[in-house]
Amino acid sequence: MIKVGEFKVGAEEKEAINEVLESGKISEGEKVREFEKMFAKYIGTKGAVAVSSGTSALIAGLEAVKIKFKVRPKGKVVTTPLTYIATSNAIVLTGLEPIYVDIDKDTFCITPDNIKDHLEEVDDVAEYVMILPVHLMGYPCDMDKITKIARDYGLLVFEDSAQAHGTIYNGKKTGSLSLLADFSFYIAHNIQAGELGAITTNEIELIKLVKKIKANGRLCDCPVCLRSEGKCPKLLSYKGEDDFDPRFTHELIGYNFKTMEFQAALALVQLKKADWIKEKRSKIVKHLNEELEQFSDLLQLPKYDKNVSYMAYPLVNKQPEKISRKKLRIHLEKLGIETRPLFGCIPTQQPAYSHLHDVYENKLPNAEFAGRNGFYIGCHQYLTNEDVEYIVKCFKKIIKNEMQ
Ligand SMILES: Cc1ncc(COP(=O)(O)O)c(C=O)c1O
């Protein structure tokens, strides 16, 4: 089976896990701290906070922004309709309202023009609080223009970079291009650790807030507790004699989004291989594009850009009347090539958002088309040359048989 994503447990991964087991400490500790430091360095931000998943990164990040910027309840967030559903869910679950604008059909990113046109048309722009672009499949959104629009309209920007570890935009990595960003290290993503997420930001206050929110709002956010040494930065008069314990003093209503040492240890191993992972994926995308170019009247191939860190190899069936996506996917799966749909257009194609169907129907043509006809296959670093040739052979076979 040629999977969308694969995780190979080699000697380094085993050693990392054993180190955690031997340390006797499996809940958040030194490995998590080390991962946060290394990931912030890799992305190019002042800090990073590890959480249990990309979804919890989105929720904790939005909660932190709400507190720091006193965001109004039910504030509107301009975002993409074409993404993994966690992006929209986090907006709704934090009491904000997603407002969808259409995407660019080649990069799947929301466009500055669509954002601007929308903001120019609305009755009360004061209801809007944020733009939340998603760098889908690794493609960076046009952050310079998005930042300018946000500035013009007094909005915050939060990047969802869950699928774009290592993508470069104008010389900087995605995840460092706005107020804050979330990442996911889920198994099918560019850097993997099973289940893990992170927030990256240059704002120290947001780092502190996310650390509290992910630990049930506890007062304490020190990396290591100093109370046994008779010190506590949260109570300067503390001498180790009184009953004060900031770990069980809660100043916010938060969540448990803490992670474990195992995930951080695995992510650290992957992080060392990040450049290799990006390059391998990039080469596979380039090669597949060259080989499948002959079918480009039928399939929209992924735009190639060496700066993109590809999460997968996305395709859009351009002529569904000739062959359906369903048929293409069934053929590929039967030949052992795993496929996944390109998420669906959230407000018109996802049952959980059916209450928005009539509001958005026919208003998001590119997202609806990609959501209905888009799918992706793997281009991950463990694919061999033979695997890649096999993929090409399968496409040739399926298209030839279907088109005759
Ligand atoms: C764009 C995007 N945002 C958020 C998430 C949520 O991440 P997780 O699955 O780690 O909760 C994902 C996961 O695939 C994603 O693709």
Brief rundown of the structure:
The protein has helices spanning 11-23, 30-43, 54-68, 86-93, 112-121, 143-153, 204-213, 261-272, 274-292, 325-334, 346-349, 357-360, 365-373, 385-403, and strands at 47-51, 76-79, 97-100, 128-132, 156-160, 168-169, 172-173, 180-184, 197-201, 299-300, 313-317, 340-341, 374-377. It has 404 residues and is α/β, with parallel strands linked by helices.
Written overview of the protein:
This protein is α/β, with parallel strands linked by helices and 404 residues long. 39% of the residues lie in helices and 12% in strands. The protein is built from 14 helices and 13 strands. Strand 2, helix 4 and strand 3 (97-100) form a beta-alpha-beta unit. Helix 3 runs parallel beside helix 4 (86-93), helix 3 (54-68) packs across helix 7 and helix 5 (112-121) runs parallel beside helix 6. The protein is globular and about 85 Å long. It binds pyridoxal-5'-phosphate. Pyridoxal-5'-phosphate is lined by residues 53-55, 58, 83-84, 86-87, 134, 160, 162-163, 184, 186, 197.
Topology:
Blueprint lengths: L10 H13 L6 H14 L3 E5 L2 H15 L7 E4 L6 H8 L3 E4 L11 H10 L6 E5 L10 H11 L2 E5 L7 E2 L2 E2 L6 E5 L12 E5 L2 H10 L47 H12 L1 H19 L6 E2 L12 E5 L7 H10 L5 E2 L4 H4 L7 H4 L4 H9 E4 L7 H19 L1
Parallel strand pairs: 2-3, 2-4, 4-5, 5-8
Antiparallel strand pairs: 1-9, 6-7, 8-9, 10-11, 11-13, 12-13
Helix pairs in contact: 1-8, 2-8, 3-4, 3-7, 5-6, 9-14
The structure holds pyridoxal-5'-phosphate (PLP).
The site of pyridoxal-5'-phosphate has 15 residues, from α3 and α4.
